[in-house]
């Protein structure tokens, strides 16, 4: 068996972004190419990355630069009449200045109809980190318009599988949300499953079969240090960090049946949270940090259940089909997302926890592993496209989607990182 830790500086083939569907209700916004003073690093311009970020959210429709009547770089150069003629609701302008090994960005966002400045700020980064600077600006623009924090500076963890000559290689990777700057963190000729982020965004927990059986590891991304925390007889699966980062929910069958346990990470002490003859698995903490969702077949087939506390009785959440699994709640306690089977196809659906209304969100047919963005506005999941496994991101309210296929092999098991302030 082979498992190799990869240094954080090692790059992998990036995911490729493909916009597959736009939203008719997207808000028109003009991201004017930023003026530049001094030598800028090669590669994508900061303003083009911001434009792409806003497009990916599904909530905005940026104007192509070649359709702009002028290219202002500061507020006093913005003529609102021109932007109204172009049908724009908002306009973003800015200036980039190189100062030694740093790039400083000054940017302003305007409401065109109100002729009002919504945002004026300065941010900087090293010359080698301008993508992070661009994602930061995207986050600020998104929040200024929607009132919701942006998630463009967060990360994706996922597993790629490449087959060659009858052999398989699994790679745990971390990238930006647009698939750029992908880095391999672990590779193995045995499966890697279920990556889950710590709330500080500094660690991943996952399942690895590198010893010939499933075991759960916690991987510190900055150092590469790994700790095997669960290697009991039988099943060790589906880790999920608690909101305070001190414990894990996991599924163990060490006592003969698959049950949900809580592990204190420091002491490794275990507390059994379910006790039923059925299979209980795939736990996920709810927004309170006191209760959790899980999948159980105690009603005759896989369904989503919720316990409001460790001692509470489970309450069944899903009823819309004979198969509902892999629950992933949002951070506000409004929805839970899951894999839903209907007419032999597997989709991603959600249930409103207040109204109990169920909505099917995807039109693809082999969907799995949903993960909600930390601001609750986007959802990533794995599906099939042209025979390959790809990741697809959709706006949770529908109408927009983009896919992230690997340049080589399949990609699966996505996990969206938290927003780290």
UniProtKB/TrEMBL annotation:
Keyword Cell cycle: yes
Domain TolB N-terminal: 16-117
Pfam families, per database record: PD40, TolB_N
Keyword annotations from UniProtKB, A to Z: Cell cycle, Cell division, Periplasm, Signal
Subcellular compartments: Periplasm
Tagged with keyword Cell division: yes
Assembly with partners or alone: The Tol-Pal system is composed of five core proteins: the inner membrane proteins TolA, TolQ and TolR, the periplasmic protein TolB and the outer membrane protein Pal. They form a network linking the inner and outer membranes and the peptidoglycan layer.
Family assignment from sequence similarity: Belongs to the TolB family.
Matches recorded under PANTHER family: PROTEIN TOLB (PTHR36842:SF1), PROTEIN TOLB HOMOLOG (PTHR36842)
Function: Part of the Tol-Pal system, which plays a role in outer membrane invagination during cell division and is important for maintaining outer membrane integrity.
Name of this protein: Tol-Pal system protein TolB
Organism: Marinobacter iranensis
């Amino acid at each position: 068996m082979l498992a190799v830790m990869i240094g954080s500086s090692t790059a992998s083939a990036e995911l490729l972004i493909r916009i597959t569907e736009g939203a008719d209700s997207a808000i028109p916004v003009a991201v004017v190419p930023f003026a530049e003073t001094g030598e800028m690093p090669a590669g994508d311009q900061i303003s083009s990355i911001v434009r792409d970020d806003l497009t990916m959210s599904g909530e905005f429709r940026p104007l192509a630069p070649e359709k702009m009547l002028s290219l202002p770089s500061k507020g006093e150069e913005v003529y609102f009449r021109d932007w109204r003629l172009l049908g724009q609701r908002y306009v973003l302008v800015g200036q980039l200045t190189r100062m030694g090994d740093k790039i400083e960005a000054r940017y302003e966002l305007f409401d065109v109809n109100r002729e009002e400045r919504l945002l004026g700020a300065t941010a900087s980064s090293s010359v080698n980190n301008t993508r992070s600077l661009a994602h930061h600006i995207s986050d600020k623009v998104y929040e200024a318009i929607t009132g919701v924090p942006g998630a463009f500076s967060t990360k994706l963890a996922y597993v790629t599988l490449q087959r060659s000559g009858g052999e398989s290689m699994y790679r745990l990777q971390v990238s930006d949300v647009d698939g750029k700057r992908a880095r391999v963190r672990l590779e193995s000729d045995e499966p890697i499953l279920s990556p889950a982020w710590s709330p500080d965004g500094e660690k991943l927990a996952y399942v690895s079969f590198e010893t010939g059986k499933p075991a759960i590891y916690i991987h510190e991304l900055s150092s590469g240090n790994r700790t095997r925390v669960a290697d009991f007889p039988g099943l060790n699966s589906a880790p999920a960090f608690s909101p305070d980062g001190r414990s894990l929910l996991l599924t163990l069958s060490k006592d003969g049946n698959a049950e949900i346990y809580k592990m204190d990470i420091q002491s490794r002490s275990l507390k059994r949270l379910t006790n039923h003859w059925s299979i209980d698995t795939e736990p996920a903490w709810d927004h309170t940090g006191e209760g959790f969702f899980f999948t159980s077949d105690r009603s005759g087939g896989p369904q989503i259940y919720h316990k409001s506390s460790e001692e509470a009785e489970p309450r069944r959440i899903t009823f819309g089909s004979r198969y509902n699994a892999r629950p992933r709640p949002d951070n506000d306690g409004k929805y839970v997302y899951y894999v839903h089977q209907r007419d032999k196809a597997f989709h991603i659906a959600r249930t409103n926890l207040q109204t109990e209304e169920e909505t099917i969100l995807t039109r693809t047919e082999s969907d799995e592993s949903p993960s909600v963005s930390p601001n609750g506005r986007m959802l990533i999941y794995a599906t099939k496209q042209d025979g390959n496994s790809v990741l697809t991101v959709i706006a949770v309210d529908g109408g927009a989607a983009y896919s992230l296929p690997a340049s080589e092999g399949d990609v699966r098991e996505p996990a969206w990182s938290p927003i780290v302030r």
